[in-house]
């Protein structure tokens, strides 16, 4: 009988248990359901994990354990890696992995993320003191019971963005103006879509979301144009 060149899910579990004590069959199945891994199946439905599948699973678990990355971020990272590998196999010039094309879409939400303040600090590189300060100015908000508060995917996204401001010596208190403006803009946009939402049907709900996305893109373009006009003397070297 020819030797098997793949492992069952149980064999994979045993092989990873030493490095990842918390790994379970349920977690492996969950990662598959989320589209992060895609093992082949035997005709009777059993999973077949080849070496590449196991290494991919090991990478995912390391991203979660060492970098505290949410699944959406991990999936995006893996897709970029897959594209680079496919381009190399096809003989194409791969796009630089660290460069991303500009997007006109809204920042995409990260779902299912719950981190303590220390975990969020390690994941984003923002010190706990600054996280608390940002929360005091309303830019992020902890959730859950008082004895076990956590931060979610929205907080992760905001921290991942504002940390770039900190490299220029900007303090959390300076960012309060963005929160104030955003609240006013959200009220304005809400007044535009409320008539659509009152129709209370799926198509109306979908239309409202599309409208908000369009308004967000248009707002960002207008803010960029107005900022460019305000700073044109400096940008053109005329100041």
Can you put this structure into words, describing what you see?
- Strands 1-2 form a two-stranded antiparallel ribbon.
- The radius of gyration is 23 Å and the shape is globular.
- It has ten helices and two strands.
- Helices cover 59% and strands 2% of the residues.
- About 5% of the residues have low confidence.
- The chain has 239 residues and is mainly alpha-helical.
- The chain folds into two domains: 82 residues, Orthogonal Bundle (Multidrug-efflux Transporter Regulator, Chain: A, Domain 2); 119 residues, Orthogonal Bundle (Multidrug-efflux Transporter Regulator, Chain: A, Domain 2).
Tally of discrete structural domains = 2
Helix content: 55-70%
* Annotated CATH architecture of the largest domain: Orthogonal Bundle
Low-confidence stretches: 94-105
Proportion in β-strands: under 5%
Largest sheet entry = 2 strands, antiparallel
Q: Given this structure, which CATH class of the largest domain is correct?
A: Mainly Alpha
Distance between the termini: 80 Å
Record the strand order, biggest sheet: 1-2
Counted by DSSP, the helix tally is 10
Radius of gyration: 23 Å
* Shape verdict: globular
> What is the CATH third-level topology name of the largest domain?
Multidrug-efflux Transporter Regulator, Chain: A, Domain 2
Number of extended strands: 2
Offer a few descriptive terms.
239 residues, mainly alpha, Multidrug-efflux Transporter Regulator, Chain: A, Domain 2, 2 domains, two-stranded antiparallel ribbon, 10 helices, globular
